[in-house]
Automatic annotation (TrEMBL):
Keyword Nucleotide-binding included in the entry's annotation: yes
Coiled-coil segments on the chain, per record: none
Disordered: annotated span: 1-34, 300-323, 470-496
Polar residues biased stretches: 300-312
GO biological process, one term: positive regulation of autophagy
Name this protein carries in UniProt: mitogen-activated protein kinase kinase
Similarity remark: Belongs to the protein kinase superfamily. STE Ser/Thr protein kinase family. MAP kinase kinase subfamily.
Chain ranges of the Protein kinase domain: 77-380
């Protein structure tokens, strides 16, 4: 019996990168054909909108890179322990002995011909041109004993999947800060290098004790993607429906992956299949209010599963508070393509955040906003106004020594005051208070019928979106039509 009824692609096979003259070095030139001189790179920085701190940090990295030089040699690297593994490779912390720099080295073992390995190294050299506050720095790549060695900037906070394991869930306030950095990183790759990331997920978003958030493992080498095709099973769970069906895809596919990653970090577990009401109750516990009835956590179409849905076939777990058993890979891919996308619970999270992730997780890529559309949403506008000490939070969560320089983001005053980095967003509390004052809610409470209210009814009763009103008031002194390009301490990277 064919379990793969939709003929979904596993493994992915050849993936065609976005055309870019920069990503196709000449095969006749074995030397590095990308100008990595400090002067050339500094000229490149002139084209980016950076605040003073971002520029200083990028220039410091480029100075360190000059010390390393053009040729990385295996004998110059001292292994200092494993950092993690995934996507067919192992990442280790290494010391570059000549310069004294700490790096992260990814080792990828490939059973391919030497000519293919050489081509992969050539294609990876385009990473020398990727210099952004939101992209992990690249020192170089080489082949040794059949392994591809990719040497990158060391991020001492690790990846967001590791952070998530430490905190169980990441608050909306912190997710707003992360989202801005990821969008700007994706936009930089697209606008400056015509690159689609193709592998957005928590494990490919790295953080450090200075509060920086950077993307890694984006697809610049078509040969490497093809050669590692069998290693991307885990990655498929973050792919958009159009990619899984083998259709044409664009940067909109990265937006789906971002939305799915945000839901995962918000609820603390991979969201497909989505948690049922009892599981949500178990996840959020005391964050519940009597207003936050379990019916709220079922979207209007989330219970309308197809006859062949994996959840329909194993409905026993739907009534339990325990996590459902993991789906087989093809059942999971079927679910992504056929069933309603996951979301976040309104009342635990603000309407702005829910709207943001819902817009990212539209099945039809044409219905998803582009990068500029995402940056204009109320969730992002509000998050830009909220100054949080992200670096301090990472140091606390990951038990890191704080850097000698301050990490706190200086932002315009938030109407909510100092933003808490745990618990519900203050705007969510305001939304709940507004909803509880609605005549419909009061009448249902008196009759004891609140337990049967659909989320759409609750939202309709809140005539004014409280948190949206707050976001508008905080932006009253700005001009959205012509945003200022003046660098401020709150800037987080190049304008999207």
């Amino acid at each position: 019996m064919n379990k793969n009824k939709l003929n979904l692609k596993l493994p992915p096979g050849s993936v065609t990168p976005v055309e870019s003259s920069k990503s196709s070095p000449s095969n006749n030139d074995d030397k590095q054909d990308v100008d990595t001189s400090l002067e050339a790179l500094q000229r490149t920085l002139e084209g980016l909108e950076l605040d003073v701190q971002q520029r200083n940090r990028l220039e410091a990295f480029l100075c360190q890179k000059q010390k390393v030089g053009d040729d990385l040699l295996p004998e110059d690297l001292k292994d200092m322990g494993e950092l993690g593994a995934g996507n067919g490779g192992v990442v280790t912390r290494v010391l570059h002995k000549p310069s004294g720099l700490i790096m992260a080295r990814k080792l990828i073992k490939l059973e391919v011909k030497p000519l293919i390995r050489t081509q992969i190294i050539r294609e990876l050299k385009v990473l020398h041109e990727c210099n952004s506050p939101h992209i992990v720095g690249f020192y170089g790549a080489f082949c040794n004993e059949g392994e591809i060695n990719i040497c990158m900037e060391y991020m001492d906070g690790g990846s967001l999947d590791l952070v998530l394991k430490e905190v169980s869930r990441i608050s909306e306030q912190v997710l707003g800060h992360i989202t801005i950095a990821v969008i700007k990183g994706l936009n930089y790759l697209r606008e400056k290098h015509q690159i689609i990331h193709r592998d957005v997920k928590p494990s490919n978003i790295l953080v450090n004790s200075r509060g920086e958030i950077k993307m890694c493992d984006f697809g610049v080498s078509g040969q490497l993607i093809d050669s590692m095709a069998n290693s991307f099973v885990g990655t498929r769970s973050y792919m958009s429906p159009e990619r899984l069906q083998g259709n044409h895809y664009s940067v909109q596919s990265d937006i789906w992956s971002l939305g799915l990653s945000l839901v995962e970090m918000a609820i603390g577990r991979y969201p497909i299949p989505p948690p049922n009401p009892k599981q949500m109750k178990k996840i959020f516990g005391s964050s519940y209010d009597e207003f936050l009835d379990p019916s709220i956590f079922e979207s209007s179409n989330s219970t309308q599963l197809s006859v062949n849905s994996p959840l329909t076939r194993s409905s026993g777990s739907r009534d339990s508070g325990d996590p459902p058993p993991p789906l087989s890979i093809f059942a999971l891919l079927d679910y992504i393509v056929l069933e309603p996308p996951p979301t976040v619970p309104l009342g635990v999270f603000t309407p702005e955040f829910k709207h943001f992730v819902d817009s990212c997780l539209q099945k039809d890529p044409n219905n998803r906003p582009d990068m500029n559309g995402l940056m204009s949403q109320a969730f992002i506008k509000r998050s830009e106004q909220e100054g949080i000490d992200f670096g301090g939070w990472i140091c606390q969560v990951m038990d890191l020594k704080p850097p000698s320089t301050p990490t706190k983001t200086n932002a315009p005053a938030s109407p909510f005051g100092t933003m808490p980095l745990t618990g519900v967003h203050p705007a969510t509390k305001a939304f709940i208070e507004k909803a509880q004052q609605s005549p419909g809610y009061i009448a249902r409470k008196a009759k004891g019928t609140n337990n049967f209210v659909a989320p759409s009814v609750v939202q309709d009763e809140v005539m004014h979106d409280v948190s949206a009103d707050v976001a508008k008031s905080t932006m009253a002194e700005t001009t959205p039509e012509s945003p200022s390009t003046t660098s401020t301490p709150n800037s987080i990277g190049p304008s999207a």
